[in-house]
Amino acid sequence: xxxxxxxxxxxTDPAADAGWSDPPxxxxxxxxxxxxxxxxxxxxxxxxxxxxxxxxxxxxxGNSYDNTGGLGASTWxxxxxxxxxxxxxxxxRESGRRLVDLGMPTVGxxxxxxxxxSRGVPAGxxxxxxxxxEHGPSLGELLSQKASAENGDLGTTLEGTPMVGPLPEFRWxxxxxxxxxxxxxxxxxxxxxxxxxxxxxxTVVVQAxxxxxxxxxxxxxxxxxxxxxxxxxxSVTGDGHVPNIGVAQKCxxxxxxxxxxxxxxxxxxxxxxxxxxGARDDMVAAxxxxxxxxxEQGFTEAxxxxxxxxxxxxxxxxxxxxxDEPEVYGLPPDPVCATSKLPEMxxxxxxxGLGLLAAGAVAFLxxxx
Amino acid sequence: xxxxxxxxxxxxxxGGRRRRRSGVRGxxxxxxxxxxxxxxxxxxxxLNRDGGGRREAPxxxxxxxxxxxxxxxxxxxxxxxxxxxxxxxGGVAAGSGIIAAGxxxxxxxxxxxxxxxxxxxxxxxxxxxxxxxLGRPERFLNMMRTVKLTSPMSVGTWILSGYAAFAGATTxxxxxxxxxxxxxGPVGVLARLVRAVDNPASVGQALFAAPLAAYTSVLLSDxxxxxxxxxxxxxxxxxxxxxxxxSAGVQLVLTPTDQxxxxxxxxxxGVVTELLAMHRLEEHLTELDLDEPVRTGAGGSKLRLARAxxxxxxxxxxxxGRSRVAAVASGLALASASSLTRFGIVExxxxxxxxxxxxxGPQKRRLEERRDxxxxxxxxxxxx
Lengths: 369, 384
Prior knowledge:
Chain A is α+β, with helices and mostly antiparallel strands. Helix content of chain A is about 30%, strand content about 15%.
């Protein structure tokens, strides 16, 4: 593909395209939501390191443990909490199975025969909780479940491994969301001042002192990440100063840290390694390994988000492992960078503009005085 | 599914457009909330099925999806009323530039003077509106620190600047004509210079007017706001039509009818273009099941009123344009219609950004269509 065609869509190396000569490897996150415990340490570490103000008054949303709401000008990490019933778990598992049946693309080079070591070994939701006295499910039920599991009638996993326990009646999905640092970043493309730029690490960063707050990037982000900071923000510092009001703000992937061989604050603080940071290629490889492992254990619902360089944004710098459809977590199911349609838009506008000139000519020349 | 025996008496499906409505399920799907709701989640009930109980159940079940507590996935642009006002005023300025060039070329003195002054006033107001909408207005000059072809706003800034330069030159020429300037001295030299650049500036103004009227559609479409992005093919024609009828409408108000013959024709071409393009736009959005924001709500009612005023102004221009009173009334109707169109489109777009169903619904449907065709290589979700 030619240099120009590569600028708006498709797989490419964003740092090289932005003019960096000999850039370091593209950096990214791998957020494995299957081991997120919802501690929100990433949110706190991000706020601390970047000295972010509060969004406003302290409010309770009533949405499970999520009182942050979503990503925004002063929230660059957001932990989502989703409560799901057994029915939804089954649905998530079926949708995951369907993805496999559809032959969804395997990203990068397929790993050589994904470790059939554990085939035949019972897998899946297998741990039976120890029943406290007078609480929880009755021991009799548990024993009958155990018996039926041992008889192998709980079905099998995708790989044909017998399941050892029933689906739980309830599960909690927790996922730490962050800026995706897209290969084709809508916010960066439409920024009229050049305040948003592509760093040598392939990330997208705002220069707050250049941004004039036009707000265009806000509507251009397919993930609803970037936002203009309003004067309703509340300072958390002693002097009461809120920086960068009226300016677009978002995650910088800790540009000030990774330039000094440090990890971003969220990744460093994450106690379960749910958030991992590194070269994007390594992150994608780790994500593939993890999703293969989960599938083998019977967690068919596991899937990757953003690891495909052929998707509508050319792949994202932040790769996620999800346990349900993306929209369950508030992520778009088919994000597209609007700028990939820009040639088509300018063509239509050009035809319309020529039509306007022609209409003027017809109006003045076409009739009698 | 209901089990009431009375359902067998339901009348067959009514006429009208077939609609697919996506149900939005909340993400709170814990065991407790499931039990308390009684009816099984994920099933179609009389509450969430389209059309209530009177219609026959659709053969294909509605595409259902979950949302994260009903929160919007994308964020609307933080633009207030300044931007739709600019779309209108900028459109008037652009159309006036074309009318001014035509009037200058065909020797219509009053039409030329009025449309040139309208264009200059429009450009000045446009600039003020754009600066006022910035989060940091004092940094508005940062727009000029780069030329960026991927940013319609950057391209538009340069188009507006170029247009403003030519409009300034033609306005200076008009002012020089109106004032009793001496033939000699530095003022006289300046006046002669201004007269000398009159014709080139007039042509330049017309050439910059076309992109000025059209680029604003790209400005809106190059976002992920569903209604704007999906109407990218039709919106340029809506906007240039709207610019033509609005600028012609302003001249119908300002200029005597013996000079506004071309403006009337310009208005009529604009009316026909805008009505056709708007119709195509609504059809296209209906196919994508995205038409609700442009048909209902504040944006929808503005667009309906705009259409009525466009038709009324167009008919008035066509049938009674030679009467001064009818011309003024038609001109006012056309200008108001254009303004309402701009506000309606912007409001409908922002409405479509605040509800996740307009983001998730079309995306899931196009994903399903691609999967049905066996095209899976471009999905954001992958396994292994």
